[in-house]
Structures are given as structure tokens and as C-alpha cells.
Amino acid sequence: MAVTREYRSFAEVRAALAGRLDRAATPCLFDRIDWFESLHGHCFAEQPAFVLQVKEDEAELWLFLLPSDSRRLSALANWYSFSWRPVFLGAPRPPLQAELLEAAARHLLNGHAQIDFYPMQDRSDHMLAAFRRAGWFAVRRPMGGRHLLHLKGRDFARYWAQRPGRLRNQVRRKGRGDPFAMEIADRLTDALWNDYRHVQARSWKDAEPALPFLRDLAERESAAGHLRIGFARREGLPVATQLWTVENGVALIHKLSHDQAFDHASPGTLLSHAMFAYAIDADRVGTIDYGTGDNAYKKDWMDERATLYRVDCFNPRFASTWIPAARIAISALVG
């Protein structure tokens, strides 16, 4: 029989996990306790944690969630999260995974009116089915995409030859005379972080809402040797920067910024050219992941788009969910 337990602090979660979602045991960055703990601490510190464990013999399910009010939960994720999914330990086979998810859904019926899970790619259909079986009214909707490049043995020269002509021409034109010095570092220093902040402050983007979270991520990945922080410089001044991580043959592109005063010279595009070349030929990655968002420029660099889904679950025991559930259902039908 499945046993469920709720945790309201990451200190309790760490003690219960005993290292089983640390880096050494967990290949995916977005499944690790470090990721969830840092995301919560830096981006959602004003909200309590809500972590659910379901255990049956040696198999376990962990759901990292966030209460937005007393009766509503969401996946513990935001725009930094490339994906969110239930985390299984003990290698349960698919039928047992389904049982654990259904047990979690039945447990959450007690006292929770609404739950949303986003961004989901893996197991969104399993989540949908399990919550429906448990008695929730659940709807799954496509919501955005995740852009991926699978190298399939290509080196950078072969990859680059297959990029759209307009991108290759832009790099050739803007790169004449080497207008920028490119730097790619795998260790974070205070000086490099100050350069990152210098560029971010002059970027076309709004002010970075969670620089401490990114600093924490960069420091952890630097210590592990997985950080790739790149700069395009003109006369020593940083004018574009990118924050990547590389691990287990996968490069993740977390953040891009450039000084908008240099838009005409395309330093961000030239830096991307250098970063892709380094990841492919020096790090020899098999996959590059541009993360969430359907920005048009990503199509020029990547080959594939994976659909992301949002799963909304409504507890029919709460009359307050009936109208929102109907609206979501209609929205899903009309696309």
C-alpha cells in the first residue's frame, strides 16, 4: 500500500532524501533538490514549500509544488524551468508509476481545490490520466514549446552549413574584422559576474528579477565544472553575455543578454556562433536545449520543437472550481 507524506520545508525534504536527488544520483538539473531548493528560496521565498512524497516498498514519487493560497497548488517552476515533471526514485515500472501518481492525486483531493502543472513535456499524459482516475476534472493544453538541437554526430562545420542562409550571412557580415573578442569561461569569478550584471543592466530586457538565483546556479555549476559563461567584448568592455551549462552531453542555454547600444553590430548573434561552436566541437555535446519560449530566432539555430503542456486539475467537491473548469475545458477545445 502506498504511504504519503507532506513536507513543508526543504530541510525536512533533504533529510528524507538523504542525497538521492543530489547531483551524483540525478542526471537532470531540473529534477535535483538543489534546483528546487534554490528556486524556492530565491524566487518564492514568501510562499511556503509543499513537497509530497508517495512511497510503496522501494518505489517513490516526489512532487515539488507551491501553494498559491490555502486550497490551490502549482508546480514549483517558473520561466527559468525548462520543464517540470514528477520525480520517481527506485526505478518503478510504468504501471507502478501510474499507481503512485494516482495515490498522490487521491491524497491531494483532501483539502485542495485546484492544481496546475506547467511546463510539462514528459509524463503530462500520465499526470492527466492519474488525476482523472482519482476523481479530479483534469484538462491538458499545449502551451508553448521547447527548442532542441540533436547533433547526431555532426561537428560544428556540418551543423553550421545547414543553418539558414540569412543567419550565416549575418554572422559573416557582422564578423568581418573580428569586431568583438569572444571569451568563454567555465569558472565563475566576481569580476565575471560583475561583467554579467553590467550587460544585463544595458540589455533590452527588463531588469533581471532574480539575479541571486542565477548567481547561485552559476556558482553551483562552476564548482562542478559545468558552467559556460560567455562574453563578447569590445576593447575589454562586455557588450553581450550568455549563461549556459553543459552536463551529461547536454548543453542548456539559460540566459542571453546584450547591450542594446550595440544592436547594429549583432554581438549576441556572434557570441551565439562562438558558444555553439565551443559546445559542439570542444564539449562534444549531443544535444543543445534552448529552453522554453517560441522566440523566432531560436528556429534558426535549432532543428526541433517539443510541445510543452499545462495540466489543470479541478476538484469537483469545491463548487468554486466549476466555472473555472468549464472555461479551461472550452479553451482547450477551441485551441
Automatic annotation (TrEMBL):
The organism's place on the tree of life at top rank: Bacteria
Coiled coil (residue ranges): none
Entry-linked Pfam families: Acetyltransf_6
UniProt xrefs under InterPro entries: Acyl_CoA_acyltransferase (IPR016181), BioF2-like_GNAT_dom (IPR038740)
Location of the BioF2-like acetyltransferase domain: 166-299
Protein name, entry field: BioF2-like acetyltransferase domain-containing protein
Taxonomy of the source species: Bacteria, Pseudomonadati, Pseudomonadota, Alphaproteobacteria, Sphingomonadales
